[in-house]
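Colleagues,

Please find the record for the two-part complex below.
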Amino acid sequence: MIGIYRALLLASFQSASQYRVTMFLYLLFSIIRPVIFLAAWTAVAAARGGTVGGFSAADFAMYYAIVTLVAHLVTSWNAYEFEFEVQHGRLSPKLLRPMHPLHQWIAENLVWKAFTLPVMLPVIVAIAVTFNARFTAEPWQVMLFVPSLLLGAAIQFLWNWIVATAAFWTTRVNAVTTLSDRLGFMFAGLVAPLALLPEPLHTIAYALPFASMIGIPAEILRGGLTPSDVLARLALQGVWLVLCFAGYQAVWRLGLRQYSAVGA
Amino acid sequence: MTRAIIEVDGLTKTFRVAERSEGVGASMRALVRRRYKDVPAVAGISFRIEAGEIVGFLGPNGAGKTTTLKALSGLLHPSGGTARVLGHVPWKRENAYLRQMTLLMGNRSQLVWDIPAADSFRVLQEIYGIPEAAYQRTLGELTELLDLAPLLHKPVRGLSLGERMKVEFAAGLLHLPRVAFLDEPTIGLDVSMQGRIRQFVAELNQRHGVTILLTSHYMADVVALCKRVLVIHRGKLLYDGGLSALAARLAPYKLIGVTLRDGETDGELSRYGEIDKRGEGRVTLRVPRDQAAVTTARVVHDLGDRLADLSLGDPPIEDVIDKVFTTESVA
């Protein structure tokens, strides 16, 4: 398996290096959005006399710098291409190999992140500095952030695949992925930190998988949570990982029975 | 009795397709309630293929050839029936099975579009767990047979259609499968390239004993490669047997071609047999198979010096096959 991953990563790396413009546009977009929210929340905090729900402008700056980083590291987009692969018969060659296609998609995902991170990081630091971010996390929180981030990435990846496998049943997956995207946008902690969501949105956010993808890792790295809060959130992520994994396996198996290998 | 490499028994695949009439009203109704129609693509076919055979799979478009190949390579779950290839149920897609077979489709891609084929080959080497020595040997052989040397280090998207198909071919065979399903392997290629691929498939079978089931629209592929053919039409198997026997059974006549120096007068040749066609001074006669030799001798005896040219042969296999598809039965 190590040899397979080495070869897949190398091939994905060679492929990715050909798409510099796409990469630049993607980075631009993934930075613009949090900056707009950051600017808005900073203005709201200033108008309210300095804080909103305990968040000062410096806290927002730190939060959005972290969210930008987390969102980048947990993102997965391969599922969006899955519809195309199914409809144009591109999936078939992958199914003929003695390897689950998921491995190739994981490799592509990892390479993309590794490729874009060196550009992303300085920009995130620049945003943090410009908006006077205050970093308050303690070393143990930074340490627990790492497993939380990995869990978030795995949950996001599997969730997107569960949604994408709708392509086995319908030829219009876009509607399904868009719904999932919108929910994610609301409940992952991108519009506002999860702590600021009013009830019942706050409860709903934790009951859906989206908080486990981005919001929870970001909350942990931002600092301020107690050890028991952090462990409870990691446990919640663990539950979502198990559910998503089981869900993915189920829909994949059912989907393959349904697969008609059109055009291939 | 030896166990066949491919055993297919009552294989059935029915696709469910949404059906809708024309017009706005029908579109509105389809929003609420869909009507479906079951389309049988493969309707219970059975056959066995022994190790080392090359079998041609013939049938018009939509006959069920590709659906059968997809089921046998594990891409499709059939609606009924059973199949075993190398002892495996294909649609379980066990790695042990996938490692030993290949499905080559004229227009499908194993290769990463943006990188040179040589790099994609390395990925396949790892996926199939091909030892380095075997990899180098097979790659060397494929490079020589398909003349790949100038193509391996260019990004795949920069290759022409024919070049890409050669490289795809190699990609599908790097692991030296024991069974190869070839779906229209020469489609879209020029005549010389078709010949190369044909020769290559024959070598693959002879050198490595690969069992091959192939579909093609080019009868030349089938005639050159296959001793045995399966004829399928509307999902049903119409014939399973030798190619030459198929011709003899379907076309119980031979063709005698006659060209006279002074031309034919008053349809005089029609007394030797049924006129099949006339053109450019040449007349083709259709005569019963068992009387072909005697009739030819009569033509020579009667017409003697007037003969500019004379030939005796079987009707073109295309015509024979076409007859199967129009009459739907092999008597």
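Chain B touches chain A through 31 residues (CB under 8 Å).

Comments are welcome before we finalize the supplementary table.
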